[in-house]
Design goal:
Number of helices: 16
CATH architecture of the largest domain: 3-Layer(bba) Sandwich
Bound molecules: flavin-adenine dinucleotide, iron/sulfur cluster
Oligomer: single chain
Largest sheet: 8 strands, mixed
CATH class of the largest domain: Alpha Beta
CATH topology of the largest domain: FAD/NAD(P)-binding domain
Number of domains: 3
Helix content: 25-40%
Distance between the termini: 53 Å
Length: 392
C-alpha cells in the first residue's frame, strides 16, 4: 500500500483537524490507555504549531507513529464526540500523519544524565520499548535483551501493507538514546533471575511466544501463525490456503496468503461470523479481498495427501448459548497447499520477585499495541518507585 493510503494527504489532514470539536472534557484522552491527548495535539496542529503537536504526542506515547497506523478504533475513536454528529475524527491517522510529516530529529525527548542504576528489559516489543523510553528519561541505563534479530516484537507479524517496518524504526530512533539504552539483538534470556546479579531490576516484556495448539490428529501438518507471519515468503501459497481461527491474527494470515499469491483462502471459524474478534475495517477487508469464511466449523483432523493437506471439518451449532458439535457433520475438504493455525498464543510461567516486573502481553494476555505500551510505561514507573523506596 502506498504512503498516500496509509497517511492522510494535506487536504485530508486539514479536514480531520477541522472536524475536531475541541471538547474540553477530552473524552478521547480519557479513553486512551496511554492518556494520549488528541484534543491538545489536534488543537496545536490546527494552529499550525506542529512542533508542539509532535511533542504532545510523544509525551505519553513513544511509539506514536506505529500506534497511529494500527491502533484499533475501540479506544479514542469510540469515545469521540464527533461520532454523535456524523463519524469519529480519525485520531490515529491524524497522529501518524503529523509524526510522518512533521517530526524532526531535534524533537527527540530529553534524557538526563546517567543516575548510576542499571535495569534490564527483556523483549524489544512495544511494552519493552515503552519501558526503556520511560526509564531512560528518568536517567536509568537500560540494556534491552531481544531474542530475535529485530525490534518490534509481534508488530513484525503485521502485514507490511498495514504497517511498513520503517515506521517502527522511526519511532525507535526517537527512543534510542545511545548514552542510556543498549540494544542487544539475538540475545534470548533463558534465566531472567540470573540477570539480577548485574541489574538493579528487570522488566520482562517477552510477549506470548508459544502457539496454542488445536489438539487434533495431524496437527503437525498445520503451521503456527508465528512461523508463517514472520517469514511468509518461505511457504508455498499457490492454490488454496486454509486459516484456522477467527480473530485479527487469523485475518492477517488470510491477507498475507492472498497477497502472496494464494488463489483461494478459506478461514475456518469455530463460532458465528458475528463472534469474530476482528475490527469492522478488518471484516470489510476480508470481504473485499474475497476471503472465504466458513463459520461454525471446527477442523478435527489434518491429513497429508499427495503433497497437499486435507482438513476434516465438523459443523457446529448453538443450542441456546452453548456451542455444540453437530453429530455426523464432518466432511473432508481436500487440496490445501498450506494450513495455518491462528487460535491463540501464551506466555511462559511468571517468576515471583520484587525486582522483576512483567509488562505487556506476557502479563495481560494478547492485547493491542497501545495497551502493551501503557503496560510497559506503568511497569517502568513502578520499577522507579521501588528502586527509589529501596534507596531511601
Ligand atoms: C499478526 C498480529 C497482528 C496484530 N495486529 C494488531 C493491530 O492491528 N493493532 C494492535 O493494536 N495490535 C495488534 N497486534 C497485537 C500487538 O502486536 C501486541 O499486542 C503487542 O506487540 C504486544 O507487545 P509486547 O511488547 O507485550 O510483546 P511482543 O510484541 O510479543 O514482544 C515481545 C518480544 O520479546 C522477545 N522475547 C521473547 N522471549 C524472550 C527472551 N527469553 N529473551 C529475549 N527476548 C525475548 C520476542 O522476540 C519479542 O520481540 C497484532 C499481533 C499480531 C501477532
Ligand atoms: S473527542 Fe473527538 S471531537 Fe472531541 S476533542 Fe477528542 S478528537 Fe476532538
Amino acid at each position: 500500500m502506498s504512503a498516500q493510503k496509509i497517511y492522510l494527504n494535506t487536504v485530508q489532514l486539514k479536514a480531520e483537524l477541522d472536524r475536531c470539536l475541541n471538547c474540553k472534557n477530552q473524552p478521547c484522552m480519557n479513553a486512551c490507555p496511554v492518556n494520549c491527548n488528541p484534543q491538545e495535539f489536534i488543537n496545536q496542529a490546527k494552529q499550525g504549531n506542529y512542533t508542539d503537536a509532535v511533542r504532545t504526542i510523544g509525551r505519553n506515547n513513544p511509539l506514536g507513529q506505529t500506534c497511529g497506523l494500527i491502533c484499533p478504533d475501540k479506544f479514542c475513536m469510540a469515545a469521540c464526540t464527533r461520532s454523535k454528529i456524523d463519524f469519529a475524527v480519525n485520531i490515529p491517522k491524524v497522529q501518524a500523519t503529523i509524526l510522518e510529516k512533521y517530526r524532526r530529529p531535534e524533537d527527540k525527548p530529553f534524557c538526563p544524565a546517567y543516575n548510576g542504576t542499571d535495569i534490564a528489559v527483556i523483549g524489544a516489543g512495544p511494552a519493552g520499548m515503552a519501558a526503556a523510553a520511560v526509564l531512560s528519561r528518568l536517567g536509568y541505563k537500560i540494556t534491552i535483551y531481544e531474542a530475535s534479530s529485530r525490534i518490534g516484537g509481534a508488530l513484525n507479524m503485521i502485514p507490511e501493507e498495514r504497517l511498513p517496518r520503517e515506521t517502527i524504526v522511526k519511532d525507535w530512533e526517537t527512543i534510542a538514546d545511545e548514552r542510556l539504552i543498549e540494544l542487544r539483538l539475538n540475545n534470548p534470556v533463558a534465566d531472567p533471575g540470573y540477570l539480577l546479579r548485574e541489574y538493579a531490576g528487570i522488566i520482562i516484556a517477552a510477549g506470548e511466544p508459544n502457539c496454542t495448539n488445536l489438539g487434533i490428529p495431524g496437527e503437525e501438518n498445520c503451521l503456527c501463525y508465528m512461523d508463517y507471519l514472520q517469514n511468509p515468503e518461505k511457504y508455498k501459497t499457490a492454490g488454496r490456503v486454509a486459516v484456522i481461527g477467527g480473530g485479527c491474527v487469523a485475518a492477517d494470515c488470510a491477507f498475507t496468503a492472498k497477497n502472496n499469491g494464494a488463489e483461494q483462502v478459506e478461514m475456518f471459524v469455530r463460532r458465528r461470523l458475528a463472534d469474530m474478534r476482528v475490527t469492522r475495517r478488518e471484516y470489510l477487508d476480508l470481504l473485499n479481498k474475497e476471503i472465504d469464511i466458513t463459520a461454525l466449523s471446527s477442523p478435527e483432523r489434518a491429513e497429508k495427501k499427495n503433497g497437499t493437506v486435507s482438513l476434516f471439518v465438523r459443523r457446529n451449532r448453538f443450542n441456546g448459548d452453548k456451542l455444540e458439535a453437530i453429530p455426523g457433520s464432518t466432511v473432508e475438504i481436500p487440496g490445501f497447499s498450506l494450513v495455518v493455525k491462528a487460535v491463540g498464543s501464551y506466555a511462559g510461567p511468571l517468576l515471583e520477585n520484587s525486582r522483576i516486573i512483567y509488562a505487556g502481553d506476557c502479563k495481560h494476555g494478547g492485547s493491542t499495541i497501545v495497551e502493551a505500551i501503557a503496560s510497559g510505561r506503568s511497569a517502568a514507573f513502578i520499577m522507579n518507585e521501588r528502586l527509589m523506596a529501596a534507596a531511601a
